[in-house]
Amino acid sequence: MITLRHRKRKRFLNLTLGILWLLIFGFRIISKPKPDAFDFWIIAFALFFILYFVYLTKRPVLTLSETQIIRHHFLKDKILPVSDLSEFVVNAKGDYVLKSNSGKSICFKPVYLDQKSLGVFKKFLAVLISEKKDRRD
After folding, report:
1. pLDDT class for 1, splitting at 50, 70, 90?
2. Where do transmembrane segments lie in this chain (predicted)?
3. Are residues 53 and 80 in the same domain?
């Protein structure tokens, strides 16, 4: 099973923003001992960015296996069986779209993937396409 991760830049940007909000909170607490309502919003922003960093680090964009391709979303995953895969298209926006015979499709932006993961995906896709051509012949 191959997991394709989010870009490091996107992940660490969220971590940096979370740490920045924590530093702002620390400076505000040092400068005035009594917290006000804005300080609670600062903590909320810091927690959001840090938890989003953890989410992006733990949860992959795609999981590839010999039998299925899984596109991970926050609430529900999309599963596309490899045997049912009919076509691969790059649309006008540059998004990658995998379509199946049953009408299911998986769409994702390659800019969200780590460069290493994108190379692995392209190799996996090339193997799938060559296997499909061999079966037809």
Report:
1. confident
2. 12-31, 37-56
3. no
